Amino acid sequence: MTREEAFALLSKSFGEQIQSKTEFRDETTYTIVASDLREIAKFCCDELAFDYLLDITSIDNFGEDPRFEIVYELYSMPHAVHLRLKLQVSEDVGAVDTVSDIWSTANWHEREIYDMMGIRFNGHPGLRRILMWDGYPFFPLRKDFPLEGLPSEMPDVAFTKITPLEGGPFVTVPSTATSKDREPRARSPEL
Amino acid sequence: MPQLGRSAALSDDPPLFDLDAPAFLLRTVWPTLVFVMPETHSTAYDSKVEGNVIFTRFDAALNWVRKNSLWPMPMGLACCAIELMATAASRFDIARFGAEVMRFSPRQCDVMIVAGTVTYKMALAVKRIYEQMPEPKWVIAMGACASTGGMYRSYAVLQGIDQLLPVDVYISGCPPRPEALLAGLMKLQEKISRERSFRKQKPELVEKLEEALS
User: Fold this and answer.
1) pTM score
2) Closest residue of chain B to A169, computed from CA coordinates
3) Of B121, B123, B154, the CB nearest to A132
4) Within 13 A of A34's CA, how many CA atoms are on the CB side?
5) Whether complex ipTM tops 0.85
6) In chain B, what percentage of residues exceed pLDDT 90?
């Protein structure tokens, strides 16, 4: 199966359910709805032989609705084809279905997204924090979490303190504006 | 004690003049250690004594023994640990300074080399390992991260291990070269050789002795 055949089959099978399809520098991105994720993921894995889940990432578009975006990077070993699936999650819902039973590598990726961004995964076999410790009260990669951190204390387990930042914080502005407007530079913390 | 004069000459103490004052004498002499060496050759001048008996201060002898056989606890947490391994390997050879016995049990260690970024998740584990080390113990903060948090000004990284442990030597660099670690080790040896270890280790005994002598 060539690239074109695979994408044609995907578009044909889920014509209505696919929000949009973008091609950029030979990279194909399908935007889907969160409720269709499992159906499309199963189809990609079983029918189109996208047997390798490269990565799952999440984006926080703070101040917009829906706030979160989750990106699945798929690869087909037999056909050497890349595919990207994107879906949006609003803050109120804050959860998507797991794909860890389809690609078992998704288990830790989903735990990382839960740990850093606070998005839950329905049906995940063990949705615990993976980098921070159990009981840590914040989700550090959210845009409203300050770069210098927040103090927290769990006696005999762990603690965090505010980090001194000279002339900072050098953080990107949370929005979907161009990278020129978002780029990290010394800004007052209110921005 | 006919060798008293010699003892004073070898140590940093002022020479003894008033040999009749026993209290003064005892106070000056009690931290003196006598090494009796096995006889190795018979050609020495007056070989019954010369070459076999060394007088020194107790602290000096104890510190000399300690500083030349430091057993490190390799607390390798990041890329500094690679340099730590290089320092232990043949090219730089930390064994030249008597610190080649890396122990992975804190119970057998003298000096903890914190080599790398200390995250908050690891911080209390590092502290617990330090507390498991027997006294006397020292800490080397190797590299920018262990000293100050380094480039990691973030929510996840402890801003210097000195917030949890008493650090003796800080080594700059990101990561430091093995030479820098060896220089830090030599600095620590200097520091150990200046310590008043007997007083530090047995404060009650020293107090009792001074009380009895005064």
Assistant:
1) 0.73
2) B153
3) B121
4) 18
5) no
6) 56
